[in-house]
TrEMBL record:
GO cellular component, one term: cytoplasm
Secretion signal span: none
UniProt source species: Microvirga alba
InterPro entries: Glc/Gal-6P_isomerase, Glucosamine6P_isomerase, NagB/RpiA_transferase-like
Protein name (database record): 6-phosphogluconolactonase
GO process terms (BP): carbohydrate metabolic process; glucosamine catabolic process; N-acetylglucosamine catabolic process; N-acetylneuraminate catabolic process
Domain of life assignment: Bacteria
Residues annotated as domain Glucosamine/galactosamine-6-phosphate isomerase: 5-126
Gene Ontology MF term list: glucosamine-6-phosphate deaminase activity; identical protein binding
UniProt xrefs under SUPFAM superfamilies: NagB/RpiA/CoA transferase-like
Length: 233
């Protein structure tokens, strides 16, 4: 699944670079994305010097050098591995509200060509958890409160030792901002995601499962494995 999704992302990226001077991508930072990102790093014939990178969320309140910060995770697993033209990390300090506004402005300087994303245990996209997700959000980047299921997922993913270690707030790209990308590649491995995928594919279109909005997006491809596929035998 990870290799297949990476090959599809690479094919779309090559096509973008053939028809335009550069490409702009948004990446999710999560263990579920690791195989895809590692495979992407080794695929040939991509001029990464013409690719500008963003990421889709970041915790508020962690020390600047905390390894759990998503910017650091992506730096270790992706950004340091390839010669990107520009990488735009989300830096909440010193004022998260200003950071969110400035990041939205950077995103809107040109179209986003590709988003590499996943789905959370609670169906979230980026950090748009059910209590704060808005399919008609007027903002492109905003500050959110993380719900308990989302915070527990960070512990279960072994990103934090205890629930209380997980920050309560974050900066996130909103759902409408993500959906405006040219192409979306959504990678969702593991049995722990099966219920969220079932709700995404077969449940009502509702912010109770934010990922359900993907069902109406012709520009989105969903990649599942045997464990995450609710329709697998």
């Amino acid at each position: 699944m990870g290799v297949a999704s990476a090959r599809a992302v690479a094919a779309e990226l090559r096509a973008c670079l053939e028809r335009q001077s550069g490409a702009r991508m948004i990446f999710a930072a999560a263990p579920s994305q690791l195989v895809t990102l590692k495979a992407l790093c080794h695929l040939p014939n991509i001029d990464w010097r013409r690719v500008t990178a963003f990421h889709m969320d970041e915790y508020i309140g962690l020390p600047a050098r905390a390894p759990q910060r998503f910017a650091h995770w992506l730096e270790s697993n992706l950004f340091s591995q390839l010669p990107f033209a520009v990488v735009h990390p989300i830096r909440p300090e010193p004022d998260p509200a200003t950071a969110a506004r400035v990041y939205a402005e950077r995103l809107n300087e040109a179209p986003i060509d590709i988003v590499c994303l996943g789905i959370g245990v609670n169906g979230h996209l980026a950090f748009n958890d059910p209590p704060v997700a808005d399919f008609d959000d007027p903002l492109d980047v905003k500050i959110v409160e993380l719900d308990d299921t989302c915070r527990q997922q960070q512990v279960d993913d072994e990103c934090f030792a205890t629930f209380s270690d997980v920050p309560e707030r974050a900066i996130t790209l909103t759902i409408p901002r993500l959906l405006r990308a040219g192409k979306m590649f959504c990678v969702v491995p593991g049995a722990v995601k099966r219920n969220a995928v079932r709700a995404t594919l077969h449940g009502p279109l509702t912010t109770d499962c934010p990922a359900s909005i993907l069902r109406g997006q012709a520009n989105c491809t969903l990649y599942l494995d045997q464990e995450s596929d609710p329709d697998a035998p």
